[in-house]
């Protein structure tokens, strides 16, 4: 494989649909309901949200598809960049706020360190990430 992400790879989607028709039908109906039903959020805004989320998930296919749709709906590059920056800031903020767990774990570990010295370590991994 020369490149991992070619737009032409999306031509394989019908093959994926054939391999899992039930799940595909459910997913495509869900996607249609989310993006095309007229709800409280206008379609143009949904596409901008999708662009920001695609940057967080790191999906170049989604970035490409949703930017094209957003542009067709009159979206601008400035709006896209601002939405991506909001997503980046939000993601960074989530990482920072989750650092509180590291502090709490560290403090908890320090308190229990003397107790743990008396116990034998359990076999196997403690974390599966």
TrEMBL record:
InterPro entries: AhpD-like (IPR029032), AhpD_core (IPR004675), CMD-like (IPR003779)
Source taxon at top rank: Bacteria
Domain Carboxymuconolactone decarboxylase-like: 22-103
PANTHER family per the UniProt record, alphabetical: ALKYL HYDROPEROXIDE REDUCTASE AHPD (PTHR33930), BLR3452 PROTEIN (PTHR33930:SF2)
Protein name stated in the entry: Carboxymuconolactone decarboxylase family protein
């Amino acid at each position: 494989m020369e490149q991992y992400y070619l737009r032409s790879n999306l031509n394989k989607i019908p093959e994926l649909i054939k391999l899992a028709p039930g799940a595909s039908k459910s997913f495509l109906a869900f996607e249609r309901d989310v993006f095309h039903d007229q709800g409280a959020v206008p379609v143009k805004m949904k596409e901008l949200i999708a662009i920001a989320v695609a940057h967080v998930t790191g999906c170049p296919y989604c970035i490409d598809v949703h930017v094209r749709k957003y542009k067709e709906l009159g979206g601008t590059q400035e709006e896209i960049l601002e939405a991506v920056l909001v997503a980046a800031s939000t993601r960074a903020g989530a990482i920072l706020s989750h650092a509180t767990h590291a502090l709490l774990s560290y403090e908890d570990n320090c308190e229990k360190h003397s107790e743990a010295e008396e116990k034998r370590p359990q076999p196997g991994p403690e974390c599966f990430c």
